[in-house]
Design brief:
The protein is mainly alpha-helical. Helices cover 90% and strands 0% of the residues. The longest helix has 170 residues.
Length: 188
């Protein structure tokens, strides 16, 4: 209303319709308590909204803190699990190294034992071979000795036979010579 009213030239003043202004002021005066009441209700409602927002904020903060603590606990559990896993991994690795050393020691001991057994078996085999060789030599010596005795007996028989043949031959020759002389004598 003031902005729409005419201005007085060369001054900063405005001509306002007095009646219209008073009517407007009456309207404002009549409506002012309702506006105050609405404003008061808004302020009360604002306080309730702020309190509710603060409660919600407190709940969100509490939930967030609880979740943060839970996450921290979970992270602690994860870190503890990682530490335990690392410890278990080291322990298993140490046990594997110990077992590997034990297995290598057992293998070395078994190798030495096998070499000893092999050496013993070779010694026994050589002794048995020598025994078999001695037995074979003894057997061959006995066979050859028997053959020698048999050949000696055969040689004796052959000598005796030859001597007999020679004796018989000499006797037969003498007899044949006698026979031939007698025959010649008869023929003469």
């Amino acid at each position: 209303m003031i902005l729409d009213s005419p201005r007085i030239p060369l001054s900063r003043r405005t001509v306002v319709d007095e009646e219209q202004l008073l009517d407007q002021l009456d309207l404002v005066r009549l409506n002012l308590p309702a506006a105050f009441q609405e404003a008061t209700e808004l302020l009360v409602h604002k306080e309730a909204v702020i309190q509710e927002a603060e409660q919600i904020a407190q709940q969100i903060i509490a939930t967030a803190e609880q979740r943060a603590n839970q996450i921290l606990d979970e992270m602690d559990i994860v870190r503890q699990a990682e530490r335990e896993a690392h410890h278990i991994r080291q322990q298993v690795q140490q046990e594997c190294e110990i077992m590997q050393q034990q297995v290598l020691a057992d293998i070395e001991q078994m190798r030495r034992q096998a070499q000893q057994e092999l050496g013993e078996m070779q010694r026994i085999a050589l002794a048995e071979c020598e025994e078999i060789q001695r037995g074979a030599d003894d057997y061959a010596d006995r066979v050859l000795s028997d053959l020698e005795a048999q050949f000696a007996e055969m040689m004796r028989v052959v000598r005796n036979g030859r001597q007999q043949i020679q004796a018989d031959s000499s006797a037969k020759m003498a007899e044949n010579a006698n026979f031939a002389r007698r025959f010649q004598d008869r023929l003469r």
